[in-house]
Specification:
The protein is mainly alpha-helical. The protein has helices at 7-32, 35-56, 62-82, 86-98, 106-120, 127-138, 143-149, 154-170, 183-202, 213-228, 238-251, 277-297, 302-315, 324-337, 341-355, 357-368, 382-394, 398-411, 415-428; strands spanning 206-207, 413-414.
């Protein structure tokens, strides 16, 4: 029986797992050629560290030690299975012949992480599989942590991961960075996955909390990772910078979005002194860099334009001092390159702030459906009904405001949103 692991060493290894497991796994996938085998051998390597490091001490370079240990754990496992399976014997011989004993350098490991990101976000995988794999394999979150964040059972989440891995094997998705010709199309999927993770954390679809900081934090970490991996050297793509800017600017408002007891606080009522000024400064600097690059190309990407909108909010001293004309103009540009009913709704709210609630209501009716009952594209989107209700409330049309708030209430599953809408309905009586 191995000696007990000192508590401090155990915490150190746990911290190491959080910081290094993504790098270790990415390199093992390249060396072993199989995601399941790489994950299994990585966990065996960390278990081996718990056994041996109390006697030997933590290596000067833990990452190469873990990669080397995991690699040989995998070969030993294949050798054991090879006694009963000829195909496994051939695989063991191949791996022994082709896996170098040299430790990969830092640059090679970072290239491995980039390859793994593109594998997890391959368009052949369903979106929910891409998100689950990315959080599991790149961010190192446990199945239970991801399931809790998305309010699903660990079993359901595990099945998504299993199906995604099976799809990678069955369709032989290559573990590689796309060619320069493929990159624009493939990069879009990676950015979309990161933004999906961020949005679920920024405004949770259901549950007792408005935000989930662990998800917004992981999305920002992934955004930073793309920049650190020198992705732009493959083909300059300022949208990577634009997305990181957008997430930082949005995240900067999180401390002010709920009260100490968890109630939702709208933008107009937020204490702007609570906004994170360091994140705002970094976000604005990144935005300026993205805008400068895109201005040269005479095209602006959707993430950069959304970041520009967020920056106008972030730099305004109050709702009244916000440059709503500029925000509407930015939404106009966004609609031209990425038309969607949600963008139209957000533009309608900005128009209401610029021109008054009557003008905003007319725009909301265009996407939600007019007052005669004809449904629009956002008929089941609670924020659209809530926005319409607010226009009616500001116009003094109490009965119509109450009806729209009740529609919104019936559609939302987030508890703070429900409490907010119920309070608005009470105020109308």
């Amino acid at each position: 029986m191995p000696p007990p692991v000192p508590e401090q060493l155990s915490r150190t290894i746990e911290t190491l797992y959080r910081s290094e497991s993504g790098r270790v796994l990415a390199t093992l996938v390249r060396l072993l050629g199989d995601l399941d085998l790489a994950e299994e051998s990585m966990h065996e390597a960390f278990a081996a560290a718990l056994e041996s490091w109390p006697q030997t001490g933590i290596p000067d370079k833990p990452r190469p030690w873990l990669i080397s240990t995991a690699r040989f754990k995998a070969i030993d496992g294949i050798r054991r299975r090879a006694r009963f399976d000829g195909a496994q014997r051939d695989l063991a011989l191949y791996m022994e012949a082709h896996i170098s004993e040299d430790s990969p350098d830092d640059e090679e490991i970072e290239d491995d992480r980039l390859r793994l990101i593109f594998t997890c976000c391959h368009p052949a995988l369903p979106p929910e599989g891409q998100v689950a794999l990315t959080l599991r394999e790149i961010c190192g979150l446990t199945t239970e942590e991801i399931a809790k964040a998305f309010l699903i059972t660990p079993g359901t989440l595990a099945q998504r991961i299993v199906r995604a891995k099976a799809k990678i094997r069955e369709t032989r998705i290559p573990y590689e960075v796309p060619t320069p010709e493929e990159l624009p199309e493939r990069l879009g999927a990676v950015l979309q996955v990161i933004y999906l993770v961020f949005n679920e954390g920024y405004s949770a679809a259901a549950g007792a909390e408005v935000t989930r900081a662990e998800l917004t934090g992981e999305a920002i970490r992934l955004g930073r990772l793309l920049l650190e991996l020198h992705l732009t050297e493959l083909r300059p793509e300022p949208e990577v910078t634009g997305l990181l800017a957008l997430m930082l600017l949005q995240e900067s408002r999180r401390p002010a979005r709920t009260s100490p007891s968890g109630e939702l606080i709208l933008l107009e009522n937020q204490d702007r002194a609570l906004w994170n000024r360091e994140q705002i400064a970094e976000g604005v600097a990144l935005l300026e860099k993205a805008l400068k690059s895109q201005q040269k190309a005479r095209r602006f990407g959707p993430y950069t334009l959304q970041a520009a909108i967020a920056a106008v909010h972030a730099e305004a001293e109050s709702m009244a001092a916000t440059d709503w004309r500029q925000i509407v103009a930015l939404y106009d540009q966004l609609l031209r390159i990425q038309p969607s009913p949600v963008v139209q709704l957000n533009r309608a709210v900005a128009i209401a702030m610029r021109d008054g609630p009557e003008a905003g209501l007319a725009q909301i009716d265009a996407v939600l459906g007019d007052s005669s009952g004809k449904d629009g594209e956002l008929a089941n989107y609670y924020l659209a009904h809530s926005a319409r209700a607010d226009m009616y409330r500001r116009l003094g049309r109490t009965a119509e405001a109450r009806a729209s708030y009740e529609k919104a209430l019936a559609l939302t599953q987030q508890e703070p949103e429900r409490q907010f809408l119920q309070e608005r309905i009470r105020q109308l009586k």
